[in-house]
Design goal:
This protein is an alpha/beta fold. The protein folds into 3 domains: 1-103; 106-141 and 182-259, no CATH class; 142-181, no CATH class. The protein has helices at 18-31, 46-51, 55-67, 80-86, 95-103, 186-203, 219-242, 251-258, and strands spanning 4-5, 10-14, 35-36, 39-43, 70-72, 106-109, 130-133, 142-146, 150-157, 164-173, 177-181, 207-211, 246-250. The strands form 6 sheets. The chain has a 3-stranded parallel sheet with strand order 4-2-5, with helices on both faces. A two-stranded parallel sheet has the order 1-3.
Length: 259
């Protein structure tokens, strides 16, 4: 049997531990006998990330950007224990987070429906796809271990340094604690919204969007507003013509509706 020819290389991102063995087995048994496989290989194993000071992750992401498609194996995001185990110079960031930031990517988790395997909720008849915005938030958060009593403040200073646009107390600590500051950008949220709307159009699936804007009146509410603006301006007519629906609701209600 003649093998399938590839014209564009596949970016191959090798991973850690057992995934290296499994990926090699998949290639040997399922791919290589049938496909003339062409890949651009990047070793994202933790040892090689340490050796390259994580430059290999950036190079792999840029290759993905160039060729448009990649296969990435599971990788270790090191904690303190892994730093000691692998003798790392620092606690390297999540490769997934680095790659998604460079690609401006959105994570879609789409289930595969298999005959004979019943869904956990028996009333589910169609797959439910989960879209996750993977920029900013905890991936780019700034953290601080508070040693003792003191005041934590949130400060924003404009680039011209003529005024402080925002300054408020986050919390007055009476003892040790922990701080985490998160952020996002309108540009990234807009890109995320368009990805979600386009995915819904391509798959002809309804799109539900949920946040906790009743509690997060600035951060989450900004997501809600941008999604609505993009929908009204670019996707409302497309959704109506396809007979699919977009609506916003609180995260509590979304969970209840799904179940």
């Amino acid at each position: 049997m003649e093998k399938i020819k590839m014209t564009t290389p596949l970016v191959e991102m090798d991973g850690d531990e057992m995934t290296r063995i499994l990926w090699q087995q998949i290639k040997d048994e399922v791919i290589l006998p049938f496909v003339d496989l062409k890949t651009e290989y990047y070793d994202l194993g933790l040892v090689h990330r340490e050796e390259t000071q994580d430059q290999v992750t950036v190079d792999a992401a840029n290759a993905n950007k160039k060729y448009g498609v990649a296969v990435k194996c599971a990788t270790i995001t090191p904690n303190a224990q892994r730093v000691e185990e692998y003798h790392l110079s620092q606690m390297w960031k999540s490769p997934n987070g680095t790659i998604r930031a460079i690609l401006d990517g959105t994570v879609f988790r789409a289930p595969i429906m298999v005959k004979g395997i019943s869904p956990v909720v028996r009333t589910w008849k169609q797959p439910i796809t989960i879209a996750r915005h993977a920029f900013g938030d905890v991936y780019r958060a700034t953290e601080y271990r508070v040693p003792g009593p003191g005041k934590a403040e949130l400060v924003f200073t404009s680039d011209d340094h003529r005024r402080t646009a925002h300054w408020q107390t986050v919390h007055r600590f009476e003892g040790p604690g922990v701080l985490q500051a998160q952020f996002n950008t309108d540009q990234s949220i807009t890109s995320f919204a368009r990805s979600c709307f386009q995915y819904a159009v391509d798959t002809r699936q309804d799109l539900w969007f949920a946040t906790k804007d009743t509690i997060s009146k600035q951060y989450d509410h900004t997501f809600k507003d941008i999604f609505q603006e993009i929908y009204d301006a670019e996707y409302k007519e497309k959704f109506e013509s396809l007979g699919i629906e977009y609506f916003y609701t609180l995260i509590d209600d979304a969970v209840a509706r799904v179940i």
